[in-house]
Each structure stands twice: as C-alpha cells, then as structure tokens.
Amino acid sequence: QVQLVESGGGLVQAGNSLRLSCAASGKIFSLSTMAWYRQSPGKQRELVAAITDDGTTNYTDSAKGRFTISRGNAKNTVYLDMDNLKPEDTAVYFCYARMSPSTGWGAGNERNYWGQGTQVTVSS
Prior knowledge:
Helices cover 0% and strands 60% of the residues.
C-alpha cells in the first residue's frame, strides 16, 4: 500500500523556522511531482511549493524567498524548509505526490496521493 507520511509541524513564534518532512512508502513504481499544500479554516487548499523529479521548483508568491522545497537523495522524500514564519502561514500542511504503485504486473494507474496533514501554528 502506497502512502505518504508527514512530520515536523508544530507551534512556533513569528520569525522562527520549521522543517516539514514527507516520505513516500510502499511498493512504488514511479514517483514524479511532489508538493506541499496548505489549508486554513474557511479557505480552500492552496499550493505552497512543488518540485518535479528533475528538481524544477515552483512556489506560491507568499512563499517565495522564505520557503524552500527539496527532495532527498532517494527522491521519495520531500522537505519544506520554512523561514521567517508569519501568523498567516498558520494552516494544516498536506504532502502531495503523483505516483504509480507497483503491482504484480508492473505499474498501476498513476494518481494523486495525499498525506494526513500536519498542523503548523505561528504565533505573533
């Protein structure tokens, strides 16, 4: 069973830093784009940052210059380093990956996978 497991959320004061981690596990045939989304109460889930399998990155405007997305050497792990956090960064952060599971006959259907979410709270 393919899944994403996140860690690293918590409560921090404004101006401080946090690192979120997400690892894909299970029988994975292929894994392409990984990303971080976030959702605040009453708001839609929004893309924070994404990284492709060749290392191309994309950030939402509010994250540019403060957040850095990266992948581990094994490519099945994604990190989000968040610096100079602001109260408006408070949200549940979700890991995302586009993956194909490995089946007994080869690759399964490629689809979107989501982590369970990790709470980030930034106090002023």
